Amino acid sequence: MNFHFSLADDLSVGLIALHGTAFFFAFRAIRLARTPQGAVGWTFFLMVLPWLGVPAYLVFGDFRYPRMVSARRSSQSASRAGIEGFEECKPAAGVEGDPLRAGFETLAERPAVTGNAAELLTDHAAFDAIFEGVDAARRYILIETYILRDDMTGLRLQERLIAKAREGLRVHVLYDPFGSHGLGHAYLKRFREAGVEIMNFHARHKSRLFSPMRLNFRDHRKIVVIDGETGFTGGFNFGDEYLGRNPRLGRWRDTLVRLAGPAVAQLQAHFAEDWHWATGRSLDLNWRPEAVPDDVTALVLASGPADAQETGCLYFLHALTCARKRVWISSPYFIPDPSLMNAMRVAAARGVDVRVILAEKRDHWLVWLAGFAFLDEMRGSGARFYRYQPGFMHQKVMLIDDSVAAIGSHNLDSRSCRLNFEASALIFDSGFAQKVAAMLEQDFAAATLVDRPLSDQPAALRIAAPVARLFAPIL
Hints:
Blueprint: H1 2-32, H2 36-48, H3 50-60, H4 66-81, H5 99-108, E1 113-122, H6 123-136, E2 140-145, H7 152-166, E3 170-175, H8 185-193, E4 197-200, E5 223-226, E6 230-234, E7 251-253, E8 255-260, H9 263-279, E9 296-303, H10 311-322, E10 326-330, E11 334-335, H11 338-349, E12 353-359, H12 365-377, E13 384-388, E14 391-393, E15 397-400, E16 404-408, E17 412-413, H13 414-419, E18 422-428, H14 430-445, E19 447-449, H15 459-469
Parallel strand pairs: 2-3, 3-4, 7-14, 10-12, 11-17, 12-13
Antiparallel strand pairs: 1-8, 1-9, 2-5, 5-6, 6-8, 9-18, 10-15, 13-19, 15-16, 16-18
Helix pairs in contact: 1-2, 1-3, 2-3, 4-9, 5-10, 10-11, 12-15
């Protein structure tokens, strides 16, 4: 009898502790959440389902981690202090009459620069260009990637980088531990034994509570820099699926931009900051790439959870607010916050041609499901949404009017806007924008218009989509 009373007492104490913890976390979410929706979502989840909400908050919640944000900003300052000559690049003239560019420069906290070349690369041609650049390197190679796999593509990259390290070049590789989960010890060991310095993005910050489960502060940037003179950024990571070798996803549709000129120094600066974050060390790099005859104006805009403002969200908002003719966006996912949805509605009401092309096939169930609920809410807004049919649409591209195009890693979702470290290159050039427009027109031709309401979908989807949407702040 005493045993039963003891068990009941233990259960009561446990329930009180659980609800007390849930209440504390809810108060913390109200105080620290970046959006009212996030605060309400967490509070409801923690109070109604504390046995699920408490462990979920331990993993997903409080993503700004004040100590980590402070450490990141200190690392950025230390990294920038070691860069000499970077700010000597010639800023582009004429910004006074160009509010679109002026806004992007404010968000990037640096001016756009002239004297660049920008080349649009898609699908297999993108990997060919990267590998050619690696083979031609003379001094150093910098690679930053979200996904690095020990497969055919990863081995092709490894062979080239090891060969260059043995030639005496400095080779630095930075990978995200979450995106590259399962990366084998033997693969990393081969790099290190050959003299390639390869680092986990969070290598210097392992003391975080539940760090193996932390799904935020992901390094989603994709950066390749060769000798400080040539740079690449876009949607590609290093895995076989990016060459269409995943039978379930089929053909992989992605885009990259190759840069030459002063904008490469801007791209390199973000690698240098991330390298300092991972290692605590600065790199001796070429900060004075020569201008090239193409004379294209370009700007690299990076965002992350340590930013003083929500740079990733403002990146899309500014484009939608300033566009006069069109905003075409390509992103695999559509998990926007209310401000982005309203900006799309207002832009469409002004007569702007707002189009978004998304992936039809799914690589992440919750993200794919939640997208149906958001698309249903945007019905009748004037913005048009398409699903790409031939394979998996992964590119992150934005076209603004007839003069500005952006290519990088920013997805149209809350994670890219608030949680991940991202980087995109903005090209202010009508000739380049025309090429991007032609590329996107081909993609739209291979896509179907989303016009079926959620109410006409199968019952399972009608139920699952609104539930998945509840997780939007962390998807």
